[in-house]
Design brief:
The complex is a heterodimer of chains A (901) and B (535). Chain A is of the alpha+beta class. Chain A has 26 helices and 35 strands. Chain A is globular, with a radius of gyration of 39 Å. With 535 residues, chain B is of the alpha+beta class. Among the domains of chain B are: 126 residues, no CATH class; 55 residues, no CATH class; 89 residues, Gyrase A, domain 2, CATH 3.30.1360.140; 48 residues, DNA polymerase, domain 1, CATH 1.10.150.390. Helix content of chain B is 36%, strand content 21%. Chain B is extended. At the A-B interface, β1, α4, α9, α25 and β33 of A face α4, α5, α6, α7 and α17 of B. β1 of chain A pairs antiparallel with β22 of chain B. The site of one zinc ion has 7 residues of chain A, from loops.
């Protein structure tokens, strides 16, 4: 076994097969159109001849004597009774017939032209030309030759060649259409044979690899059987592959043609058969050739022949070569598990028993592996928990042995150094975890395995963002790495903690979401105190061992502050200062300091952490969320990926601990506002309606002055939109006056956990104007949105102004119009996903080959330099501070506060 | 500098060239005193000849006795070359007539505020000499200590960004040498550590970083903030348009800035708007076809005309561009309401011609620049005006005197490539994609956009991202076959004898071996237990 010597294909040379080569690589000349005999055994020299490989277990290949999985398959060939044209090259054949002399078979270019073109074409190797450019050059060069009637070499007057698509050539005098004669493929081949090698360059042919006459087939390769396996139906009937069907036709007609030719049948019959052969060979290559009907299966379905097998999204290239199906993978529904680390993934036992890791036995692990094999396939620990067993063992000769409860003991003794044991997944194994669509590299990250009871994959909620996952039925895929190299790369590069920083914007993409934010907001806002008992309960969720000093002692009870509890999860020597989201709208007061309305103590406007102790501020979105997460960002940079992961782990645990201790709930009562507020809002909506009516009257009585560059209609719409927009904003403002920071919904909005204040004002205040494409609703019935309005009604009601709030509820009319507005969003999403998907495919395809070299230049595959220094400064966007090379303010703050380690 | 510029026949000039000395040339136009240089065009567009004018005199009669001038030779034996046989007005004494290589485009000459687009007869024009001043090197505008710091670090192989160097210098002054050293060390370390890793797949990362947020973008076309008249495509459609390198964007638009001296001048602003806004007859009048009388009637709309500051005469003038027609201006009725109709008859009376005429009349350009449908002045925060347009015509806008060519721009990337060159197009791609993403408040690092912009422009012309552009030109047969049009590429590879060297990503995935990026680009070799040499 030499598998540890890695081999690489250096290059692939493309060329056209010559008939000689076809015969040389052929293992059998197929002469009968039959496949199997009555016993179901392949007929010799038939299309299923054993020389071309085997597809049935038990049989051996007649060429390499390999069995089903061992034989790679071998080509055969058919000698065609008469030559036929390969459809794919019809254009080239036409070009040769047009461009060469029928008499002397030279290209119809003068010596001067040949010299000039030849010099131009020999500048580069033919294959180095841009394909389109080469086509153009050839076309230009040959223009003269094709136009020329009289051969410049021998003076022969040539006829014009006409192509009847797809494959029939005729020849006639240039002027008169009379006396046109068909040129048979045989004649064409004879002409092409005589073209000298040196003239090929003018046709764009590479003489070292190609002769023009090879474009006319005399021998047809028959693909190996495993390329066109026959399938046995449930009824026991055999069903052949489309290619085999086509080959049967070709052999039959070829035979009949040979017989007819040999026993001197009339020319007409021979020609008919010849055309039929041409048809079959043409459709064998491409069953969608323009100008001929596609060959069909008995059922009427068009056959999938060679071209159809390769092209398109379902073709070989895109569906089997660029993307491949794999073993050792699992897929199931996902669900959350807050007590897992972000680096872990919970795998159900059932999946773990199926997924295996190959272990090659050596002198160091043989005893352990014997133990494993002995356990069989479904071992459990004493406490009934999962323990991994072994599913298969692989002998050095390649034989695979399935382990069963019965043979486990036996096989544990048989295994030896060099054998491979396929053991089941166990805790600590590294696996790849993925959610589609895989739009960025964080869609596939490495996790370590935790085996859990249940049926779903589970992971920490902080990892939802990079996967863009939620738990409304999302499924994810898991792949078990099979090689040490892969496992090493997964651990070092792909592990979740290594992917905390997004290459898109140079900030964290993993962090606390939803309740994490709410919880830590409540824990730190106003720095609440907790008795020793309470603090202990909260801290019991955390794996920290830290001396905590009480803030105060009252009646012998020690009290700890929320910020100190949060500080327990921060690394020591950590310094940071930033403005919280809560106070992001803080305004500068007269004395120049910022004032934040939500903080009692104005020192809390900024979050201040010095030497790992949180002194001021409120933890919210800006501190710990994905995208924003300042604390995560700076911990990652100063202490590394592991510390950042540890912080996120503890942070999410602390958040869950605290919020389940404190309790947090939201409900419709959150949106209760006093009567007077409700009537105020009502007044606003009435006022707005009145304004709208006023505008409409102005408009109808032609008193409205159009705005600069606008029609009256547009001006009216704009004015109305302005009024209704203001009405919603105002009602929102009134509502939020009564909804303070003690309101759970407001807490969520202000802390950035979920929703915006706008959503709250929609629930408590007013939903507001509905729109489609930025315009008030205007379509539906003739000149009105619904039939019970008057035609031409431009009022607020009829055009989708929703005065109600979600809490009060929409009336049927409002509900209907609101749904119209809502639908636009749904349509938008549907259109967007497909468009952006295609754009990304094109982007990836265009840029996939670019890389940075040792000198930090950006180059493509040919070595052409795209950028002399990546991004002008060579800085990795992932490591940048939101695009900047350095965050000087942070460095200063850190160093000034003794931030040295 | 004021010069005389005229169009002449090639033959005339060749005759002139032959006669080397004492060249007196009688021309059919007046020339004012003080002009010292003459420029001649033979094809209207390019000016190919230049001569010094040493003397200007009136033309009387061929070989007529000239009155003595400034005590020059009395006997008038001047051998005159004649531009034409009749209508001659002036005699120029020309010296050192030379062929200009390269030729000067006629648009380099200007008449008052306007560039000359074509030399039809003669002009006393001004020719601005373009002075190219070299931009000051950055090092000379950076203050001493900062510069020293940058240069010192450069010697160590550290490239300090300017703003960081400035900050460091400040720190040194305020906090002392020790603290400065500490910070500098950390800066050096951070900069080194944050360099991108060799063999990083920067292209894929760029593509993902731009593609991934695509799903979060909006699809609608918006009104530009502040200017309601100018629609601008934004969001995902705009991003797609940029990478597609569409020949014209769906909503072309320009930002026109004026030179400082005009930027606050209301008159200048409205003058420029008037000059550039393209107005066709159909924009300011109804065009009616009268099949009884076989004529086309233009019914001007006063309101529209006033808004665009167009007079009746402008329409009549514009009609001059249509050949073989008769223009009749009707009697004025109540002029306070509308202008009188203008009737246009074709000389050749046929329905076909009438139809043609109607289309011609509608499309006749009264004034403005082609393509610019609308221009609106927007007041900036500093009190200056900026013009925003619907439609784009960068080349001609840049030629307008008041326009500040340095800041003026368009969102049409291909147009920028044509007018300003490929480097400008590269920056335009960068700017447009950056602005599009920023407007959607999506945070994408500029370095990714640079990769896209550089890749799209590296060949010297703007290439689209996709089959027509970058992907279609890949060197690998297999990669091309995998993308689109599989069979064509394979067939061609056969006859040309192409070799796939398997250097890219797609082709290696196809054959099933490691790709050449990242860890696939390096080899890890284990030496094993090499015994010591001594043993
Ligand atoms: Mg979901
Ligand atoms: Zn075999
Ligand atoms: Zn010949």
């Amino acid at each position: 076994m030499n598998s540890f010597i890695s081999k690489r294909i250096n290059n692939i040379q493309f060329a056209i097969l010559s008939p000689d080569e076809v015969r040389k690589m052929s293992q059998v000349r197929v002469i009968t159109a039959d496949t199997y005999d009555d016993d179901g055994y392949p007929i010799e020299r038939g299309l299923m001849d054993l020389h071309m490989g085997v597809i049935e277990p038990g049989l051996k290949c007649a060429t390499c004597s390999g069995k089903v999985d061992e034989c790679p398959g071998h080509f055969g060939h058919i000698d065609l009774a008469m030559p036929v044209i390969q459809v794919g090259f019809v254009k080239e054949v036409k070009m040769f017939l047009d461009g060469t002399c029928k008499n002397c078979n030279r290209v119809k270019l003068t010596e001067d032209e040949m010299q000039a073109y030849g010099r131009r074409l020999s500048e580069k190797k033919l294959e180095d030309y841009d394909p389109e450019l080469l086509t153009l050059i050839i076309k230009k060069n040959l223009e003269q030759a094709i136009k020329r009637e009289v051969c410049p070499h021998c003076g022969f007057k040539n006829l014009t060649v006409i192509l009847d698509k797809p494959t029939t050539f005729r020849e006639g005098a240039k002027s008169g259409g009379a006396a046109e004669k068909k040129i048979t493929p045989k004649e064409i081949r004879e002409r092409l044979e005589k073209i000298p090698d040196d003239d090929l360059i003018y046709f764009g042919l590479n003489k070292s690899f190609v002769r023009p006459e090879w474009m006319i087939l005399t021998a047809l390769p028959v693909p190996p059987i495993n390329v066109r396996p026959s399938i046995t139906l449930e009824t026991g009937e055999r069903s052949e592959d489309d290619l085999t069907h086509k080959l049967v036709d070709i052999i039959r007609i070829s035979q009949r043609l040979r017989e007819s030719r040999d026993n001197g049948s009339p020319q007409l019959i021979i020609e008919d058969l010849w055309d039929l052969l041409q048809f079959h060979v043409t459709t064998y290559f491409d069953n969608q050739t323009a100008g001929i009907p596609p060959a069909r299966h008995r059922s009427g379905r068009p056959l999938k022949t060679l071209v159809q097998r390769m092209k398109g999204k379902e073709g070989r290239f895109r569906s089997n070569l660029s993307g491949k199906r794999v073993n050792f993978s699992a897929r199931t529904v996902i669900s959350p598990e807050p007590f897992l680390s972000i680096n872990e993934v919970g795998v159900p036992e059932k999946a773990a028993r199926e997924l295996t890791v190959p272990v090659t036995i050596n002198q160091f692990n043989i005893d352990v592996m014997r133990e494993w094999v002995k356990r069989g396939t479904t071992p459990t620990k004493e406490n009934g928990n999962y323990e991994s067993g072994v599913n298969y063992i692989l002998r050095p000769d390649g034989r695979r042995v399935k382990i069963t409860a019965a043979n486990a003991e036996d096989n544990s003794q048989k295994i030896d150094i060099g054998w491979v044991v396929e053991r089941q997944l166990s805790e600590g194994d590294i696996v790849l975890f993925n959610r589609q669509p895989s739009l960025h590299r964080m869609s596939m990250m490495a996790h370590t395995v935790r085996i859990l009871k249940g049926q779903t994959f589970r992971f920490n909620l902080a990892v939802c963002t990079p996967y863009n996952a939620d738990f409304d039925g999302d499924e994810m895929n898991l792949h078990v790495l099979q090689k040490e190299e892969g496992r090493a790369e997964a651990r070092i590069i792909m592990k979740v903690q290594e992917q905390i920083m997004s290459p898109r914007f140079g900030g964290p993409i993993i962090g606390g979401i939803h309740d994490h934010v709410t919880a830590l907001f409540l824990l730190t806002h106003g720095n609440p105190l907790f008795s020793e008992k309470e603090a202990t309960h909260i801290m019991s969720y955390l794996p920290v061992d830290k001396d905590m000093k009480p803030v105060s002692v009252e009646n012998g009870v020690k009290y700890f502050s929320g910020r100190d509890i949060f500080s327990a999860i921060l690394p020591e020597d950590f310094n940071i200062k930033f403005r919280s989201k809560l106070c992001s709208g803080a305004k500068r007061s007269e004395d120049g300091t910022f004032v934040c309305e939500y903080e009692e103590n104005q020192e809390d406007i900024d979050v201040v952490i010095i030497n790992g102790r949180m002194i001021h501020g409120t933890i919210d979105e800006t501190a710990i969320s994905p995208f924003a997460g300042k604390i995560i960002d700076k911990i990652y940079r100063k202490f590394g990926a592991a510390a950042a992961a540890e912080f996120i782990d503890k942070m999410t645990r602390l958040a869950v601990a605290f919020i389940s201790f404190r309790g947090f709930s939201t409900g419709i009562a959150d949106y209760d506002i006093p009567e007077n507020a409700i009537s105020e809002i009502k007044e606003i909506s009435i006022e707005a309606e009145k304004d709208v009516d006023g505008f409409v009257i102005d408009f109808k009585e032609e008193r409205m002055n159009p705005r600069e560059g606008k029609s009256v209609e547009e001006t009216l719409e704009e004015e109305i939109m302005k009024v209704t927009g203001e009405a919603r904003d105002q009602s929102g403002k009134i509502a939020s006056q009564y909804l303070g920071l003690t309101n759970p919904s407001v807490i969520m909005a202000r802390s950035g956990a979920r929703a915006k204040m706008l959503n709250i004002s929609e629930v408590a205040g007013m939903v507001g104007q509905q729109s489609v494409r930025g315009q008030r609703l205007n379509r539906g019935y003739d000149k009105r949105t619904l039939p019970h309005f008057k035609k031409g009604d431009l009022g607020a009601d009829s055009r989708g102004f929703v005065k109600s709030s979600y809490k009060v509820g929409l009336n049927p009319l409002e509900y209907f119009l609101h749904s119209i507005g809502g639908r636009e969003g749904l349509v938008d999403i549907a259109v967007r996903t497909s468009r952006s998907g295609y754009m990304q495919r094109r982007l990836i395809n265009a840029f996939e080959d670019l890389k940075v070299n040792e000198r930090r230049q950006v180059t493509d595959t040919v070595g052409e330099i795209i950028q002399f220094k990546y991004g002008d400064d060579g800085i990795d966007p992932t490591k940048s501070e939101n695009g900047e090379a350095l965050d000087m303010n942070y460095i200063l703050f850190d160093e000034e506060n003794g931030g040295e380690q | 500098m004021k010069v005389i510029l005229w169009k002449d026949t090639k033959k005339n000039i060749e005759n002139l060239m032959e006669k080397a000395e004492n060249l007196f040339y009688a021309v059919d136009f007046p020339v004012s005193e003080g002009i010292e240089e003459a420029y001649i065009s033979v094809d209207k567009k390019k000016v190919l000849y230049r001569a010094k004018v040493t003397e200007i005199s009136e033309y009387n009669l061929p070989n007529a006795k000239k009155p003595a001038e400034k005590g020059k030779k009395k006997k008038d034996t001047r051998e005159l070359m004649l531009k034409k046989k009749t209508g001659l007005k002036t005699v120029l004494h020309l010296e050192s007539l030379e062929v200009l290589a390269p030729s000067i485009p006629s648009s380099d000459f200007s008449l008052g505020r306007n560039k000359i687009n074509a030399v039809d007869s003669y002009y006393e024009a001004t020719l601005e000499r373009i002075v190219i001043t070299q931009k000051e090197k950055y090092s000379s505008v950076i203050e001493g200590p900062v510069r020293q710091l940058i240069e010192k670090e450069l010697d160590k192989g550290v490239v300090l960004p300017l703003h960081i160097a400035e900050m460091l210098t400040k720190i040194k002054k305020e906090k002392g040498q020790d603290f400065f050293n500490k910070i500098l060390k950390r800066v050096e370390e951070d900069l080194e550590e944050r360099q991108i890793d060799p063999f990083e797949a920067v292209g894929i990362i760029a593509a993902q970083s731009i593609g991934e947020p695509g799903t979060q973008m909006t699809m609608r076309t918006f009104h530009y903030a502040g200017v309601k008249e100018v629609d601008v495509t934004l969001g995902l459609p705009r991003l797609i348009e940029i990478v597609d390198a569409r020949r014209t964007p769906s909503t072309p638009s320009m930002d026109i800035f004026l030179k400082d001296e005009y930027a606050r001048d209301d008159d200048a602003v409205s003058r420029v708007i008037k000059d550039i806004e393209n107005t066709s007859v159909i924009d300011v009048a109804d065009v009616i076809t009268d099949t009884d009388e076989m004529m086309v009637i233009i019914r001007p709309k006063r309101k529209l005309m006033d808004r665009r500051r167009i007079k009746e005469q402008d329409i009549l003038d514009a009609m001059g561009s249509i050949k073989q027609i008769t223009i009749i201006q009707k009697e004025k009725g109540d002029t306070s309401v509308d202008y009188a109709d203008i009737e246009i008859k074709a000389q050749q009376e046929s329905y076909k011609r009438l139809y043609q005429l109607q289309e011609q009349v509608k499309a006749v350009n009264i004034k403005g620049l082609q393509g610019i449908k609308r221009a609106v002045a927007v007041k900036e925060r500093d009190g200056t005006y900026k013009l925003q347009t619907q439609g784009s015509n960068l080349k001609q806008v840049l030629e307008i005197e008041e326009v500040d060519a340095v800041r003026t721009t368009t969102n049409d990337i291909v147009e920028i490539a044509n007018v300003l060159g490929i480097e400008a197009a590269r920056n335009a791609i960068l700017k447009e994609s950056r602005d599009t993403l920023k407007e959607q408040s999506l945070d994408v690092d500029e370095r990714h956009l640079m990769v896209v912009a550089d890749m799209m422009t590296i060949e010297g012309q703007v290439r689209a991202v996709g089959r027509q552009g970058i992907s279609g030109k890949k060197s690998s047969v297999l990669a091309r076959a995998a993308f689109e049009i599989t069979v064509k590429h394979l067939m061609r590879a056969g006859i040309v004898g192409e070799t796939d060297t398997l250097t890219g990503v797609a082709e290696n995935i196809i054959v099933g071996q490691p790709i050449t990026l990242g860890t696939g680009a390096v080899d890890l070799v284990y030496r094993g237990n090499v015994p010591d040499k001594g043993e």
